[in-house]
Write a structure and sequence with these properties.
Radius of gyration: 27 Å
Number of helices: 10
Number of domains: 1
Number of strands: 7
Shape: globular
CATH topology: Rossmann fold
CATH architecture: 3-Layer(aba) Sandwich
Helix content: 40-55%
Order of helices and strands: HHEHEHHEHEHEHEHHE
Strand order of the largest sheet: 3-2-1-4-5-6-7
């Protein structure tokens, strides 16, 4: 067989090969590079499914609390978090309050990816505080995608015979009214035209901005065990939380017109410190009986803040987008008796 020098050179030097062959090889390497980049992006999205999102979580004053656990979960999932706190409330309780610097340090340790963290103290029973909180929270990253209304006033309660107008109003304004006003402010961020729309009359629906390929934002409210049974001695608190559970379908339906998904969480009995022997306000005998009863339950424990946080974290991802307008109980079976 006769082989020319040009043929040998073509085999030895890729630069001398047929241009079409060289282009094919270049495209192959380019495609492999793109596939590698896409794989890295997919892995990052799997690890940080909330990357690029920003959440406002209210009631994050204590590291033992549900709010802290939710904020931590969001950070672990890659979201930026603006946390609200109001330490004076906790200082009035038997379990006390943490230093906010310690709370922030705990959240910093959970930060994932390029997430940012911000905070503000505010008394949300004062409606004038709400627009400012929303404004500062949105300014953290320029967007606000998730709202978790975890704050709550507790204590200073009693039976129906102990109810006064002031006691009922205090619980309503701190727990229910503030949640509704926060949600209204949040909705306006995602539907600016809502600021200019004509007020609705009873029975009228707000205009839809859909259809939506995916939720534009998420809202989470917190209710309590009053939906499953009596809460003796907590009439004012249960009333304020029952209002949120009861209005969930109506508000969820309206928010859905704007592409916003609302769900309400009943975490059940969660030990945020108030069930510890050194922090409880129960008598020694009551505490002993409680411990004995707990040992007979299915899992032998009360809820942990991370139980609720895990549920909320999942609901905030794309995988939880199809759950809309529900009052969800996450109590390990406590409500089943």
């Amino acid at each position: 067989m006769c082989v020319t020098l040009n043929q040998i050179g073509s085999r030895m030097h890729p630069s001398r090969q047929d241009p079409s062959i060289q282009q094919s090889n270049t495209q192959h390497h380019s495609t492999a590079h793109v596939d590698s980049e896409q794989s890295d992006i997919d892995k990052s999205n799997d690890r940080y499914p909330l990357a690029g999102k920003t959440a406002l979580v209210t009631g994050v004053s204590r590291r033992r609390g549900i709010g802290f656990a939710v904020a931590t979960k969001f950070l672990e999932l890659g979201a930026s978090v603006f946390f609200h706190h109001y330490r004076p409330h906790d200082l009035d309780q038997p379990w006390g309050g943490d230093e906010i610097d310690d709370v922030r340090a705990g959240l910093e340790a959970a930060r994932g990816g390029d997430a940012s963290i911000g905070s503000l103290s505010a008394d949300l029973s004062d409606p004038a505080e709400i627009p400012h909180l929303m404004e500062v929270a949105e300014a953290l990253t320029g967007t606000l995608d998730i709202l978790v209304c975890n704050h709550a006033k507790s204590g200073d309660d009693g039976s129906i015979l102990d109810m006064t107008a002031d006691r009922l109003d205090a619980m309503w304004s701190a727990n229910a009214r503030s949640t509704l006003l926060l949600t209204r402010q949040f909705a306006e961020i995602h539907a600016p035209q809502a600021q200019d729309y004509e007020p609705r009359r009873p029975g009228e629906r707000i205009p839809s901005t859909g259809p939506h390929e995916a939720p534009a934002a998420r809202v989470f409210w917190m209710t309590s065990g009053q939906i499953h049974g009596p809460m003796p001695g907590e009439v004012a608190y249960a009333t304020s939380k029952a209002a949120l559970a009861g209005i969930t379908p109506t508000v969820a339906s309206e928010l859905l017109k704007l592409g916003i998904v609302l769900n309400t969480i009943n975490p059940g009995p969660v030990n945020t410190g108030y069930l510890d022997a050194d922090m409880t306000d129960k008598s020694p005998e009551e505490f002993r009986q409680l411990q004995e009863w707990t040992a007979t339950t299915a899992f032998g424990r009360f809820g942990r803040p991370t139980d609720s946080a895990s549920l909320i974290g999942w609901l905030a991802t794309d995988e939880g987008a199809w759950v809309v307008g529900q009052v969800l109980t996450s109590d390990g079976g406590f409500s089943l008796g």
